[in-house]
Amino acid sequence: MRLAALLLLLAGCASGVKPYAEGGERNLSIRTSSSARASLDVHSVDAQCRTQYLGTVSLDKPDIAIGIPAGRLSYLEFGFASSGFFSRSTHTSRGTLLDPRPGARYEADVTYRDDLYGVVLREKPPRGAARELPLLDLAACRRAGAK
Q1: In this structure, which long-range contacts are made by residues 58-61, counting pairs with CB atoms below 8 Å and at least 24 apart in sequence?
Q2: How many other C-beta atoms are found inside a 10 Å radius of the C-beta of residue 73?
């Protein structure tokens, strides 16, 4: 039993995938509807818009809640991997910058069906109505002059 656990741990390390160690309050709810294997890579973003990989969350359940630290810019990369018996494996990803505000809640709807994928991100402030957030790539960080 211990040997099997050790082998799984080593396999994860060899692939470069590490589990995301959540930061603080679970402020991001992720709903997944996917015919592919889906995952979320979480990166921190520094003042020069450089990213640092923090870990991966497997989106293997329809609803998952994680914590993304408020007041710090993060880059979220949603990945989709699929393979078929008669088709080759494919991997597609969609990323976005997120600067969570203290007290706000965030929802991501992640879908992948028939080679079409989608990510919709919403912010729910402590008071007021929810709003859909645009998906911003890393170039948006550079254009904004970084935090």
Answers
A1: 59/30, 59/32, 59/34, 59/110, 61/32
A2: 20
Q: Which domains does the chain have, with CATH numbers?
A: 19-143 (2.60.40)
CA 110/CA 104 separation, integer angstroms: 20
> Where does residue 100 rank: exposed (0-12), middle (13-18), buried (19+ CB within 10 A)?
buried
> Each residue of 23-81: pLDDT tens digit?
678 999 999 987 778 899 999 999 999 999 999 999 999 999 999 999 899 999 999 88
* This prediction's pTM: 0.82
Alpha-carbon distance of 63 to 56, in angstroms, equals: 16
Q: Residue type for 35, please?
A: S
- Give the E-state strand segments of the chain in sequence order: 28-34, 37-45, 51-58, 63-66, 74-82, 90-98, 105-113, 116-124, 131-133
